[in-house]
Specification:
This protein is mainly α and 509 residues long. Helix content is 61%, strand content 3%. It has 21 helices and 3 strands. It has a 3-stranded mixed β-sheet, sandwiched between helices. A hairpin with a 2-residue loop joins strand 2 and strand 3. Helix 13 crosses helix 14.
């Protein structure tokens, strides 16, 4: 158990006393972040709705405590002294890098902004939930207006290269800029449109399926999801599954991770795929090297790398023919009548332009991200106002996906991200999707084909590969360096396009 870090830090990992002292000082920060994670999870799962007022105050005050601990003179001086040491190992350099990014953030952002952003987003998450249920954008728009204004302030205080959006993306994906992400999307989108046209014209993968409209028993689906986690060999002593309006993962540390799903009563693949997706996030946190426990680098390298893990499990594994056969044979045959493995495979791999991002197929998903990226970039740049967003959303959906939402709940209100201030997060979904395909290529090569392991329920080999190459390092390395070191490539959208071509056109995957 974690007592004081000085008692548990392995000397062979953190050699220099200066680094060990820094980590010891960080323990108070870690403890407050642990509490915030638990409070955030509770806010989305079990907290009574009227508790939001007190919860938002408490969370904003804790965020202020964290800011003050990061910016105390003793801590800053120790960090500056440690940065001058030349013979640090990789773990120690990782600690310095992560702490410097945090100190820079909290030094540059005024307390007023930290407190106001925390309080506003805590309240906004509940308002968003009700606004979505009532399909009323006007309920949420004052909060979104305030959140965007505060995020602009954050960007200005942090500084940026070309565009204020750069500062916000960098918070989630270290080193990424709006221009670079735009270039990636410029390469990706034409390929996606071409593959989509071919898939739709061929007709092998359906655009609709009867299971989408068939109702299911929620208690039955709970048992199905629990069985899937058992097949994936999850540890119930370290991972739990709950319900929320929007599926998410909350990590309290490397021994306590919570995931959620939602049950809508129909179209059962949605809840199954959300569980597999969040399992990917959880596994990343749970497989971080225990030697890093409670240190600044006991977190994922970036949100892009994190999303690569969830998208890998959801798409590369969860929607594969091999896994669908396992689902049919081991889980669903007793619950879903009159279906074959082939029918189930096509159901899980419906391809069509659709309105909801989280339910989008592999071919169209990143077109949804293009919509959000453009809106966020324009809003943070001051080129559009909040009142313009619903109409622009419809125009961009028509441009990229080919359909326009009729209700705000299917459009601008569908995602939780803006309510919690996560502006700049959406690009990491596309990065993660691309990297998931690159991981598949590397794993396929190293393991002699991954789908034989899936068919044989040998998920230990897959987890082990991910643990060794990605998970155990936490944020020791910056995301791009981690990928180059252990995957052997930088981010390349051609890997994802090749994967889609193989699965949906050539049908060789």
């Amino acid at each position: 158990m974690l007592r004081t870090l000085g008692e548990t830090l392995p000397a062979q990992v953190f050699v220099r006393s200066e680094i060990r002292d820094l980590i010891e000082m960080y323990q108070d920060i870690w403890s407050l972040q642990h509490a915030l994670s638990l409070m955030g999870w509770d806010l989305e799962t079990y907290m009574p709705e009227d508790g939001v007022v007190e919860r938002s105050i408490a969370m904003s005050r804790i965020n202020l405590m964290i800011k003050r601990l990061f910016t105390r003179r003793e801590f800053i001086d120790k960090l500056a002294a440690a940065e001058k040491i030349e013979d640090l190992n990789d773990y120690e350099r990782g600690v310095i890098r992560v702490l410097r990014r945090a100190v820079d953030y909290y030094t540059k952002i005024p307390e007023r902004v930290v407190e106001e952003l925390s309080r506003t987003t805590s309240e906004a998450s509940v308002v968003w939930r009700n606004a979505k249920a009532k399909d009323d954008f006007n309920m949420f728009s004052p909060y979104l207006d305030k959140i965007i204004a505060l995020e602009r302030e954050v960007a200005e205080h942090l500084g940026y290269r070309d565009h204020p959006y750069d500062a916000l993306i960098d918070l989630y994906e270290e080193g990424l800029t709006a221009r670079e992400f735009g270039s990636i999307m410029d390469r990706l989108i034409p390929g996606l449109r071409s593959i989509l046209d071919k898939v739709l014209s061929e007709g092998y993968f359906p655009t609709a399926h009867r299971f989408e409209d068939e109702s299911y028993n929620i208690d039955t689906m709970r048992r199905v999801n629990e069985r899937i986690l058992e097949i994936l060999e999850y540890d119930p002593k370290r991972l739990r599954l709950d319900v929320s309006a929007h599926p998410f993962t909350a990590s309290m540390g490397i021994r306590d991770v919570r995931i959620t799903t939602r049950y809508e009563g129909r179209d059962f693949r949605r809840t199954i795929l959300s569980v597999i997706h969040e399992y990917g996030h959880a596994l990343y946190e749970l497989q971080i090297d225990e030697a890093l426990q409670g240190t600044p680098i006991a977190i994922g390298a970036s949100m892009g790398v994190h999303e690569s893990q969830s998208r890998f499990w959801e798409l590369v594994i969860g929607k594969s023919r091999a896994f669908i056969e396992v689902l049919h044979r081991r889980v669903l045959r007793d619950h879903i009548a009159s279906t074959s493995e082939e029918d189930l495979y096509r159901y899980f791999n419906i391809v069509r332009p659709s309105l909801i991002r989280v339910d989008a197929d592999e071919v169209t998903y990143n077109l949804h991200i293009a919509v959000r990226f453009e809106i966020e970039r324009l809003a943070i740049g001051g080129e559009i106002s909040v009142k313009d967003i619903p109409e622009l959303w419809g125009e961009l959906m028509e441009k990229y996906v080919g359909i326009r939402p009729k209700r705000h709940s299917e459009g601008v209100l569908q995602d939780i991200h803006w309510s919690n201030g996560s502006i700049g997060y959406f690009p990491t979904y596309s990065l993660g999707t691309i990297v998931a395909a690159q991981i598949r290529d590397a794993m396929d090569r190293d393991l002699g084909g991954i789908y034989g392991h899936v068919s044989n329920l040998n998920f230990r080999a897959i987890r082990g590969w991910l643990g060794e190459k990605i998970h155990k390092w936490g944020s020791t390395y910056p995301p791009r360096e981690l990928l180059r070191r252990f995957i052997g490539r930088d981010i390349d959208p051609e890997s994802y396009l090749s994967y889609l071509e193989g699965k949906y056109i050539k049908k060789t995957i």
